[in-house]
Every structure is written in structure tokens, then in C-alpha cells.
Automatic annotation (TrEMBL):
Positions of transmembrane segments: 7-24, 44-60, 105-123
UniProt subcellular location: Membrane
Protein name: Transmembrane protein 267
GO cellular-component term (any): membrane
Source organism phylogeny: Eukaryota, Metazoa, Ecdysozoa, Arthropoda, Hexapoda
Signal peptide, first to last residue: none
Organism: Odynerus spinipes
Keyword Transmembrane helix in record: yes
Matching InterPro entries: TMEM267
Membrane topology, record value: Multi-pass membrane protein
């Protein structure tokens, strides 16, 4: 009974933390002065939200957080890494070039994580390599948490443009 209640409290707490982190990250972005600070804060928020998302998945799967610290860190780093495509698409390491693209860069296309997930799952099954299976789910969670956060922030901007 106590274990079930503790598990439910933990699920609610981590879900709440994902929301609070996103809200705080977005709120702080409104008050930051420099582009470098905004980029850093945005990137760190993506990374933390992704790590918390993977933690929530581990809790829901009844897996140990301690034994899966590498997966949590991988999720943190991968979600942060996704934004490197801004620089690759801009073909420049200048932040001003990377943040003023006319279209979304390639790692922000949701087909990429779906294909990666599929390829990793198939390789995992073909080679009987279970850790690659876990990796495919971390990739999915990291990309999707990043894309969903980017997407929800884009909605008011899109609505404002259409008016
Ligand atoms: Zn992004």
C-alpha cells in the first residue's frame, strides 16, 4: 500500500517537475538580455526536460533510476545536442546566423527520430542487442520532448502571424 502511494506521488512529482521546468525556462527566457544567455538557457531547459522525461519513463517502467543513470545522462545530452542543427543548417558558428534561419533545421523534423527509432529497433532485434532497444526509446523520448517544447512555444507565434 505504502509503496503504491509512494510510486504515485513520485510519478505526479516528476510530471509536475517537467511542467515547472518548462514554464520556468520559458519565463526566464523573456527576461534574459543577451542572445548567448537565451540560447544557453533554452538549451539547458531542453536537456533537463528530456532527462526528467526519461526519469518518468523509467519510473513508469518500474526500472531503477540508479542503474539507468547513463540513460538519463544520454537523454540530457541528446536533447541538448539536437539544436546543433541550427548551426549546421546556417553553415556558420555565429549564433545570429543559427537563430535566424528561414526554415526549421533537419533535426527538428519529427520523421528523423521515428526513423532512428525504427532503425535502432530493427538492428537491436536482428543482432539480439537489448541495450540498443533501450537506446531507441531514449532517442525517441529526447527528440519528442525537444520537439514538443519547441512546438508549444511556436503556437502563439504562428497564431499571431495569421492575424
Ligand atoms: Zn530546438
Amino acid at each position: 500500500m505504502f509503496v503504491k502511494k509512494w510510486s504515485l506521488i513520485l510519478k505526479i512529482a516528476v510530471t509536475g517537475l517537467i511542467g515547472i521546468t518548462s514554464f520556468l525556462g520559458d519565463t526566464c527566457l523573456k527576461y534574459t538580455q543577451t542572445a548567448v544567455t537565451r540560447a544557453f538557457l533554452d538549451n539547458v531547459t531542453h536537456a533537463i526536460v528530456s532527462a526528467l522525461t526519461w526519469i518518468l519513463i523509467l519510473i513508469l517502467s518500474k526500472k531503477s533510476l540508479v542503474q539507468n543513470l547513463d540513460g538519463i545522462f544520454f537523454s540530457f545530452a541528446l536533447s541538448s545536442f539536437i539544436d546543433v542543427d541550427h548551426f549546421l543548417s546556417a553553415r556558420s558558428w555565429k549564433l545570429s546566423d543559427a537563430t535566424n534561419l528561414t526554415k526549421r533545421p533537419f533535426l527538428h523534423c519529427t520523421t528523423v527520430p521515428i526513423l532512428l527509432w525504427l532503425i535502432l529497433i530493427l538492428i537491436s532485434k536482428a543482432l539480439n542487442y537489448p541495450s540498443l532497444n533501450q537506446c531507441s526509446w531514449i532517442v525517441s523520448a529526447s527528440f519528442l520532448s525537444h520537439h514538443i517544447r519547441d512546438g508549444t512555444r511556436r503556437v502563439p507565434h504562428t497564431i499571431a502571424q495569421s492575424q
